[in-house]
Amino acid sequence: MTAPILRRLSDLRAKTAEWRRAGETIGLVPTMGALHAGHLSLAEAAKKACDRVIVTIFVNPKQFNKPEDLANYPRTEQDDAQKLAHLGIDLIYCPDPDQIYPDGYATNVSVGGSITAVMEGPFRPGHFDGVATVVAKLFLQTSADKAFFGQKDYQQLMVVTRMARDLDIPIEVIGCETVREASGLAMSSRNLLLSEDALAKAAALNAAMRDAAAKAAAGEPWAPLEASARQSLADAGFGDIEYFDLRCSETLEALDTPSRPSRLLAAAWMDGIRLIDNIAVHQLNS
Ligand code: PAF
User: Fold this and answer.
1) Which of 102, 172, 206, 222 has an alpha carbon within 20 to 30 A of 200's alpha carbon?
2) What is the pLDDT of residues 20-38, one digit of tens each?
3) Which residue range is the domain that position 153 belongs to?
């Protein structure tokens, strides 16, 4: 049976108040829909950790810095509800736009510092403000105890964790493992926009990352590894490779060697679609 879909904040609050009165904990999985196995694994993790689970579906206009990206974003609400049906989640919150941004809405949540100054920050101006703003609202609207995010959007995970801490929102942010296709490609709603041929070629991104990470972990210097990965991605059919960076997992500072816990993070365009991925470098070595 599909979970009930609520569209009004007052209905959501009535439900969460009932759960609270019964002493139940609430888990939140924020999404923009077009659900794939990665989202479903977040809902499963929430289900294990909390008495009640809310999945939210809201395509947040504030986090798109290109209007065509917003227009092309897949919207598949009925399919999404079907995919969640077997997981036993308690409700799907698909807020009407005015429940998030009512007339006259004027507040922006902006996370500063080193974690937003690099990679997605400069390449997608305004994106993290849009994410931080909507996620702050979803945290407050649902009053969830725990929120589940995929590590695929590693920088986003850091941003929402920082935001919740800085604003004293009493919620635990939990990062869950990236779910991948058999080819290694990270699952993403954007993969739906790729042709079969482009999907096959896109697997080269994770392959190049794993190769570079293993070599960096074995002591090879980063600059030539990055250059050769960029070349192999271009050969595989990727267009613009926006970044292919070795960075500190905690501060996102650029590194020459993985001398402390580090991640390799990348963003590259395949057939007009922007793909991102990241992997832990140390784990490969340990
Ligand atoms: O990762 C996403 O799907 C979105 O950025 C999120 C966290 C649901 C906020 O709109």
Assistant:
1) 222
2) 999 999 999 999 999 999 9
3) 5-176
- Whether 36 is a known active-site residue: answer no
pLDDT in tens, 165-203: 999 999 999 999 999 999 999 999 999 999 999 999 999
CATH code, 204: 3.30.1300.10
- CB of 131 shorter than 6 A to ligand 1: yes
CA 94 – CA 8 distance, rounded (Å): 8
Which residue's CA is the nearest one to ligand 1's atom 3? 31
Q: Which residue has the tokens 């402390």?
A: 260
List pLDDT tens digits, range 110-159: 999 999 999 999 999 999 999 999 999 999 999 999 999 999 999 999 99
- Ligand 1 centre to CA of 80 (Å) is 15
Asked if 224 and 155 sit in the same domain, the reply is no
Sign, CA dihedral 124-98-17-42, equals negative
Instruction: Answer yes or no: is pLDDT of 55 > 50.
Output: yes
Atom of ligand 1 nearest to the CA of 150: 1
Closest ligand 1 atom to the C-alpha of 56?
8
**Boundary of a domain, candidates 151, 176, 201:** 176
Number of domains present in the structure of the chain:
2
